[in-house]
């Protein structure tokens, strides 16, 4: 697979911003996604027109995952759980190496940091990245990992700040 975490302008992860559409369900602007991503992840790939331009809906509360001018695919139509749209654990973050939000939260809660970004970068540099066919967004997961780390740190800080002074030491 391509090294999409470190892509060039011609890779499937580097689609032009001008090809974005608006989700027919929530009305929010979508993110252009390669046809390869859609064909790889929808249950019925025969519904995917090779000439269609698809977008990925990034709205968490919307059940539309992919849409084009003629077709819409919702969460039940997708082979994998779509992390950004999931509310129940396990919430997938890295589809290539099977890391979840819980992995991040566990590391941050236990030791205050996580090595997941470095581990993912090492695997990507070794050529084991397949984001364009495994990740529903068609993009590298490192942004999602970073957001989960920030969220986990906020939760840990909130827990510590709400502890009684006698427990803090």
- CATH topology name of the largest domain: Arc Repressor Mutant, subunit A
**Count of domain modules:** 2
- In helices, the fraction of residues equals 25-40%
Taken as a percent bin, the fraction of beta residues is: 5-15%
Secondary-structure element series: EHEEEEEHHHHH
Query: Considering the protein shown, what is the CATH homologous superfamily of the largest domain?
Result: BFD-like [2Fe-2S]-binding domain
Main β-sheet, in a few words?
4 strands, antiparallel
CA radius of gyration is 18 Å
**Structural class assignment:** alpha+beta
Taking the alpha carbons of the first and last residues, their distance comes to 51 Å
- How many DSSP helices? 6
Quick one: CATH class of the largest domain? Mainly Alpha
Average of the residue pLDDT scores: 87
Q: Tell me the strand order in the biggest sheet.
A: 1-2-3-4
Number of strands: 6
What are the SSEs and their pairings?
Layout: E1 31-33, H1 35-41, E2 54-56, E3 64-67, E4 72-74, E5 92-94, E6 99-100, H2 101-111, H3 116-125, H4 131-134, H5 142-161, H6 165-168
Antiparallel strand pairs: 1-2, 2-3, 3-4, 5-6
Descriptive overview:
The protein is of the alpha+beta class. It folds into 2 domains: 12-79, N-terminal domain of TfIIb, CATH 2.20.25; 81-163, BFD-like [2Fe-2S]-binding domain (Arc Repressor Mutant, subunit A), CATH 1.10.10.1100. It contains 6 helices and 6 strands, in the order βαβββββααααα. The strands form 2 sheets. A 4-stranded antiparallel sheet has the order 1-2-3-4. A hairpin with a 7-residue loop joins strand 2 and strand 3. The radius of gyration is 18 Å and the shape is globular. The N and C termini lie far apart (51 Å).
């Amino acid at each position: 697979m391509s090294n999409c975490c470190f892509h060039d302008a011609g890779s499937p992860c580097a689609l032009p911003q001008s090809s974005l559409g608006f989700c027919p369900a929530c009305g929010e602007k979508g993110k252009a996604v390669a046809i390869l991503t859609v064909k790889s992840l929808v249950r019925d790939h025969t519904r995917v027109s090779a000439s269609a331009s698809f977008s990925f809906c990034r709205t968490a509360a919307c059940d539309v995952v992919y849409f084009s001018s003629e077709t819409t695919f919702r969460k039940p139509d997708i082979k994998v759980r779509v992390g950004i749209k999931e509310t129940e654990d396990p919430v997938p973050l890295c589809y290539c190496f099977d890391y979840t939000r819980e992995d991040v939260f566990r590391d941050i809660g236990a030791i205050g940091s996580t090595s997941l970004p470095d581990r993912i970068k090492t695997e990507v540099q070794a050529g084991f990245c397949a984001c364009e066919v495994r990740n529903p967004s068609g993009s590298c997961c490192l942004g999602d990992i970073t957001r989960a780390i920030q969220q986990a740190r906020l939760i840990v800080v909130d827990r510590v700040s709400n502890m009684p002074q006698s427990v803090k030491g």
